[in-house]
Amino acid sequence: MEVFVDARGKACPEPVIMTKKALDSMESGRVVTVVDNEISRDNVVKLARSQNLEFLVEEKNGGFEITIEKGRRETALEHAVDGMKHENTHLMLDKDYVILVSQNTLGNGAVELGKILLKNYLYTLREASHLPSALLFVNSGVFLTTEGSESLEALKELEKRGVEILSCGTCLDYYHLKEKLMVGKVTNMFEIVEKTTGKRTLCL
């Protein structure tokens, strides 16, 4: 089986995610990913190395072609367990792990860069094998769950997989966004404290 992935013109981390999906779709075979920049090339190569897969990189037509070979290494038991995960995605949730998003940017520095990084983080989080039980949005973080957010698709996908999407009601009111909530539910500080107390909390 061979799958061709055309990731030209795609921004990080999409080439890696597209390649990973192609690899995950097969038990054995070959994935050929084409990218048009060195960063994407290096990230796809890192993915292949992280999975201990053989790969070949060729420079073609001003871009790069990465051929990844995947062998049939899963046992029947591993395949059965993997199937269960796809049927019941709640098995991948960690009830003792939540993420608190307190702003609509990631890190300090250029605001526009911070917005791009946070969008990419949430987009990539969908593909993680280890998901938080809840994403809690406070302060300007609520801009991510409301009308106009570029992260709505990623958040809706996470919600489908069982992750609670909760936005602070006081924050929505402050920014006049309560009627524009597009994903998840409204929460309050009491519930936020309950969700984070005694749990591993990643703060963004």
What attributes characterize this protein structure?
204 residues; alpha/beta; five-stranded parallel beta sheet; elongated; four-stranded mixed beta sheet; 9 strands
What features would you describe in this structure?
The structure is a single chain. The protein has 204 residues and is of the alpha/beta class. Helices cover 36% and strands 27% of the residues. It contains seven helices and nine strands, in the order βαβαββαβαβαβαβαβ. The strands form two sheets. A five-stranded parallel sheet has the order 8-7-6-5-9. A four-stranded mixed sheet has the order 1-2-4-3, covered by helices on one side. β7 (164-168), α6 (169-174) and β8 form a beta-alpha-beta unit. The longest helix is centred in the middle third of the chain and has 15 residues, at 111-125. It starts with a strand and ends with a strand. The relative contact order is 0.12. Mean pLDDT is 85; it is low at 73-91.
Helix and strand arrangement:
Layout: E1 2-6, H1 14-24, E2 29-35, H2 38-50, E3 54-60, E4 63-70, H3 76-87, E5 93-101, H4 111-125, E6 131-137, H5 152-160, E7 164-168, H6 169-174, E8 185-187, H7 189-196, E9 200-203
Parallel strand pairs: 1-2, 5-6, 5-9, 6-7, 7-8
Antiparallel strand pairs: 2-4, 3-4
Helix pairs in contact: 1-2, 4-5
